[in-house]
Structures are given as structure tokens and as C-alpha cells.
Protein: Very short patch repair endonuclease
Organism: Polyangium fumosum
Amino acid sequence: MSRIRSRDTTPERVLRGVLRRAGLRPQPHPKLPGAPDVAFVRRRVAIFLDGCFWHGCPQHYIAPTTRFSFWADKLRRNVERDAEVDAVLQGMGFRLVRLWQHELTYVGGLLARVGAALDEHADPIPPAFCDGKIWWACACGSVDVRVVSVSERGSLKPAGKVRPAAASLRCRSCSRGWIVPVPEKLI
């Protein structure tokens, strides 16, 4: 157990890389209760990346066949501690995002969840399609929205064959920023 790293693991580095490519600058390992993996302290958002084995993922957890009672107690304590940390951080006014390790492969969904937590306004207005182009509107009513960055290689142009999973947007009127999943096909 002493050789298991708790900081700067490969999944954490992948998560930070995904967030950076989306134009976000999270603070790694802030000094907060429960030691979130990354956080946006000023915006009061804490993100935890839970390993499927260590936190009992309902899809991927397989109980060890040896020392079953030890591992069952270990998992139970981890889940209880997660609930306690969630309650403390929510009491401090933080919004929480708990991601499973296997969710790192779904970049669009991951960015949409983080973007929803970062969004202080109402839910983002879904994209509209006109003449084969994607148009986004801000919650303030403005359609003067620019794309700051995309999650991976691809094009938002109508002729583009590969689309990124998500895009980071910013309203030019109210300076509000948010992340949205990019639709696969244009209507």
C-alpha cells in the first residue's frame, strides 16, 4: 500500500491535460478538505478523480479473492470518507464533480460535467444549426459567442470530417465562459 501514489498519477495528469486543452487552468491539489485532485478555488469547484478499484465503481469494481474482509472494509471506509468530504466541501459552498477513472475516455461528457459545475448561470442554451453552421447563444441573450479552444483536433466548419468532443466558449458581451459538447453531425 505504501507504494501506491496519491498525487500526480497518470489519470490525474490526463485530466489536467484535458482541462488545459479546453482553456481551463485548474489548481492541482489545493489545500482543501479531502485533497481534491484539481480545483477552481475562486469559482468554488472541486474535482475528484476516483479510481474504479479504490472507490468501488459500480461498472468496473471486482472484489479481490484474497483477504476479502480487509478489502471490503477498505472500500467501505473509502466510500464513507468520500461522503464526509463531500458534505464538508458543500458546507463550504463548493460545487463538486466526482469523476470515475474510466470517464477520462469520454472527453466530451467530462468537459460538459466540469463546465456545468463552473457555470454560475442557468444551463447553457443548446446550439442552433443554420446553413450547416453551429451557433451558440449565451444565457444573457447574446449570440456574439466565440470559440476559445476545442478539446482535441477537429473542425467546427461544415466541411470538417472530424469534430472535437467539446468546445470552450466565451460570450463577447458579458465575458461569461462555458464548455459545451460538440454535436457529431450538423442538421
User: Anything to note?
Assistant: The beta strands are 27-28, 38-40, 45-50, 95-100, 128-130, 133-135, 145-150, 166-171, 177-181. The chain is about 25% helix and 20% strand. The helical segments are 10-21, 68-91, 107-118. The chain has two domains: 10-118, 128-181.
